[in-house]
């Protein structure tokens, strides 16, 4: 049965559904839609700009102000107060209503100080002005966290103009949201519209300070009441304190709470705080960007940071801005008041104000309003660098060969030749692999949410994203065309404002991104999809991709890219997936990059460092546990407690328990300490080992440091393709006569049934204590280098990149004679493939026999491979792809 939840979700949002159709209507000339904080308020920049529009004489525009239902009356009153009797044609519309969707889709100009919702898709003919709401002190975008900000990025990419009142703000936003070089957005330095309210010629009839603490989830009413008590006792007799809490915690203080203090007043959310600041005697804040704003009028400021460490630990701040701040920092209310009373303007404050608020002035809001009415590109700075932009979809960045090949590609190609941009939904990446985004040498964009589309388009688009059986229902005629039309609309929404020349589906499996590729193929965006494996075999054995969608990608893409010619030959020969005569584009080959120099460097890292943070899939510690009479102990003691007890005792008796770790302990301590840097005060000793390793990894380290032992290493996910059964049969065939051998399998993930079969086989074998099954490792190359041989028994591969990485780690490789490996060596090297690796047949137990022969005859070093020639060839292949 079709899973229609997503379609139903779209239909429930009737306004959004209408938005798609309203986008087909003509643009309403001389119309402006203005939204602040997604309709929760109407203040700040949009309100100030509206004031500028109202003061413009004979202005023939229609303005639509957005407000949520719960603040509609308040916003309407605010708008009326701003517009007065100016005659400006203004209408307040409810957020998310049909009217809102209509005007969002048809207004000629759009103004926002944060972001429109994810379904927003700016049209040709609309001009979007994003007036960012404040100079950033707290970290934003990728500087705060690797994902979770895709919609803000989407809005900033969509904006024609990003307006800020200082260079630091615009530079920081550009970096935090990956806009540099690729966004059509133009940067404009103009006065802060809302800061105009600070310039007030009136004189207040009372003396007061304003306290504006930043929001934090740990804040409580009791905490604020304690702080207010101290303030009340410290204020001069003729001075009051006006408290303005962040909107997220406004409810923590009520008027009744504050009524107990005669000299303290709570400012409700709707109070125009900037006007009050302009009349105040000083500002008390902590981490708020408002301190940059009040610099425009040189207002006395004290930073009352009563929980600085807590906040910085949560989110962090920009050090450049922190270093520039000239204000005194206090930690008590009494000291804060004392500093405000004694405050004097100095040169440091003047320098600060010039950097962050030099454009601001009393009528700055008019300048911004005039720019919106008649944009002047002479004041704007373009972010585009004029280079071709290539979007690369890498897949979910798992620990697998495709991710490794992708990372190697980015490290090997000339990144300055084009704008290479990773295109990946943040929610696709498992949490444990998010760090890989931060390590990429290129920018990335995160398509966020799902746009609205037509009823039939939605039905066919989401229908095709169901299981393959359902997807096949839509794989013909007009239904397929409708699904691809929806895919095209969705893709263009996600790259709005990002001029795109190429979209490359690098893994070649994921159906949603393949459907997006199908939708845009044949447009001015060129497309490519890679083939990393024997796809017919993958489909028959694993059924891990949608045949209809992927086959369509092969048919419509501009380039179908095999990582080896044999991948293309197998695909064509099978006949089920593509007919070369019906292809829009061409087949081409881009051999994988090996990144051999980095592999060689990492292989020289000590095993102690390489094994840090390495998860263990299975290690048999039963004999060790029996020594402590714990294996058969009462079930009242948990396995975790038993293991902790054993680990403590083993480390306490390291010399006898793990003699080779003991002999090498100083080197281990030194290697670990080096990670923390020479300035670190951390001291590594025997008692600290339990903080870095469990008993299983310590046992492995002990074996690795034992010069009498020899190792085989295998790296590959749990799957039929990777043939762990061959590895285990080979080890079973040699271990009895050669007890000095150990086996390490690095299997970061895979199919659960294959994993269970593999571990169960090891557990029931007579050699279980000689086998270590590890999880994902960022650096398996140090283990490879220690091995007598790297075992690579795969039944089929695209290229078998990890086998070449083992060669780069200067390790002998025993492999099945897979055509991609054999042909790559024959084509790129001076000698036959057999001079570089040991090859077995890919049938029966021939691989087992080769491992046995290798052990009996003794290892012989093969010819060193010429990696440079392989890299040059791959680079030429990569460049050729863009000339098709």
UniProtKB/TrEMBL annotation:
It is a peripheral membrane protein. InterPro entries: Glycerophosphate_synth (IPR007554), Glyco_trans_1 (IPR001296), TagF_C (IPR043148), TagF_N (IPR043149), Teichoic_Acid_Biosynth (IPR051612). GO terms for molecular function: CDP-glycerol glycerophosphotransferase activity; glycosyltransferase activity. SUPFAM superfamilies: UDP-Glycosyltransferase/glycogen phosphorylase. Pfam families: Glycos_transf_1, Glyphos_transf. It comes from the Bacteria. GO terms for biological process: teichoic acid biosynthetic process. Its main location: membrane. This is CDP-glycerol glycerophosphotransferase (TagB/SpsB family). Belongs to the CDP-glycerol glycerophosphotransferase family. It is found in: Cell membrane. Keywords: Cell membrane, Membrane, Teichoic acid biosynthesis, Transferase. The keyword Repeat does not apply. One of its GO terms (cellular component) is plasma membrane.
